[in-house]
Amino acid sequence: KYEAVIFDLDGVICHTDKYHFAAWKCLADKLGVYFDEQINNRLRGVSRMESLEIVLENFSGKLTEQQKLQYSNQKNEIYCDLLKNMDSSDLSIEVKQTLDQLRRRGYLLAIGSSSKNAGFILKQIGLENYFDAISDGNNITKSKPDPEVFLMAAKFVNKAAEMCLVVEDAKAGIEAARKGGMDCAAIGDAVNCNMADYNLSKFSDILGICE
Ligand code: G16
Ligand code: MG
Hints:
42% helix; alpha/beta; 6-stranded parallel beta sheet; 211 residues; globular; binds 1,6-di-O-phosphono-alpha-D-glucopyranose
């Protein structure tokens, strides 16, 4: 049924949540803003600037656009420093074997991530040059739930939306896939929103869908 699989990166291929949390927490503490894991969960799949707006919901002061940019840059510097801790051990054997198997079955494999750091993360976990295409925060103007990132990924692998299956861990990503006319499989927290075509209990379940 499908010819290409488009994977979200953070929360699907690997887990960068704890680094995002640590970096946002650092910024929030500096601003004297309350921040916890629950607020961090709302940032999944959302762009950096939109994430900052969510972090600032509990901030009473007013910031100029320039200050916001400065703060989001500060968060990103802390985050990128933490990403240096990642290595090939952050790519699970299950994920790697599943990807290899999909490739053997003839599927094109792409990344569809909101992150501007996708290339660096892929390099850290040893998947640099692995995917047939990478669509990420650097080639889009609107982030999830807008379908742009997935539509670009489909375009990069030269497949119509109906030929693509999206794998996502965030509600914003499931919405994006649906708006783009693609079927989607939810994994992790996204299973709870009950909006996907398939709910995966583990990554290798994709092999049951893409036979
Ligand atoms: C990821 C994360 C989001 C993050 C976004 C932008 O999206 O899930 O929490 O805000 O990237 O990241 P950056 O600040 O590195 O550009 P995805 O789509 O890979 O799950
Ligand atoms: Mg994600």
